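Researcher: Sequence recovery benchmark, item below. Answer with residues only.
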């Protein structure tokens, strides 16, 4: 079997092309979609993620403002900043870059972001709406996975999807998306995690595998059935002898699934570009809602 590589770039470019008209329409009435990204501490990977997000916003003539806070910042100082951003009409999306320094309670901080500006989709109100089947902001990475499945016409309805990982940002929302009767959904879904006794017993049955465990190259060719479609969410750093000193690999051992899987997303270049695209899409959606609310207020 010729395994197809499902690249993220054409999918994200297609979405950007659609977003450009929506952004221009907002700009014509004086609204520029704007993200506030809060970066606490000096984690190098987080700095790169925030920089890449800012660049993507600028590329589409949107704005992003980065708020850099020291690693020792107090919870109350961060909550004050978020409160100010919640009530700033020029800010349409607020993102708190994770992970946070150990002394901070990420639940308290993420819950303080207004659900109306929660473009990461992590607030319990938005997660609740998603579970109810009526989502507004969908977490970016699982939403990006759905866009990849859609773009490449991968049949999901009636299929058995196995998700490896149950985090709040990937695994659980991924389950909510694939299991419900959405346009891309209606699958029978199994969630595997660290408590799963025999992972291979599940992956071998899957028509679709979503690998999101953060374990380098854990899904091997002998764990899958012929013709499975695999989405590799994992981003793992492995030390090597290259000039950089490391390489990025996914949760799938891509070489070993070649010839068995029908398709697989590459790492890097698969799901990665989609996450930022979905952040932009959520921020544009938020700005459009702000526009509607403003019009409604003026008409009252
Ligand atoms: P996490 O550590 O919060 O969760 C990992 C999950 O995998 C846990 O629920 C755990 O139960 C499960 N797990 C771990 N080891 C396992 C094993 N051996 N067998 C079965 N299940 C196992 O991680 P996360 O934030 O959900 O991220 C998962 C991966 O996806 C990471 O590599 C992360 O870097 C990557 N990620 C990528 C993007 C992107 O933009 N492409 C975005 C978010 C996360």
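Model:
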């Amino acid at each position: 079997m010729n395994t197809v590589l499902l690249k993220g770039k054409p999918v994200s470019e297609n979405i950007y092309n659609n977003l450009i008209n929506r952004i221009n329409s907002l700009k014509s009435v004086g609204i520029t979609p704007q993200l506030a990204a809060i970066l606490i501490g000096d984690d190098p990977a987080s700095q790169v993620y925030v920089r890449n997000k800012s660049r993507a916003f600028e590329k589409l003539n949107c704005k992003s403002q980065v708020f850099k806070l020291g690693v020792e910042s107090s919870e109350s100082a961060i909550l004050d900043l978020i409160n100010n951003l919640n009530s700033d009409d020029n800010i349409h999306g607020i993102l708190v870059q994770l992970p946070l320094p150990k002394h901070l309670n990420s639940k308290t901080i993420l819950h303080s972001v207004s659900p109306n500006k929660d473009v990461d989709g992590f607030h319990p109100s938005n997660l609740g709406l998603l579970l109810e089947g009526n989502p507004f902001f969908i977490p970016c990475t699982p939403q990006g996975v759905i866009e990849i499945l859609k773009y490449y016409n991968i049949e999901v309805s009636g299929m058995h999807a196995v998700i490896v990982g149950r985090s709040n940002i990937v695994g659980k929302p991924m389950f909510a998306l694939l299991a419900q009767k959405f346009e891309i959904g209606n699958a029978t879904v199994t969630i595997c995690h660290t408590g799963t006794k025999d992972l291979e017993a599940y992956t071998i049955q899957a028509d679709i595998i979503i690998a999101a465990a953060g374990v380098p190259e854990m899904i091997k060719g002998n764990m899958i059935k012929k013709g499975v479609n695999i989405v590799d969410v994992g981003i793992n750093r492995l030390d090597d002898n290259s000039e950089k000193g490391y390489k990025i690999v996914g949760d799938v051992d891509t070489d070993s699934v070649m010839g068995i899987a029908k398709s697989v997303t590459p790492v890097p270049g698969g799901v990665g570009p989609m996450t930022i695209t979905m952040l932009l899409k959520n921020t544009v959606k938020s700005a459009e809602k702000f526009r509607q609310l403003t019009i409604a207020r003026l008409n009252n």
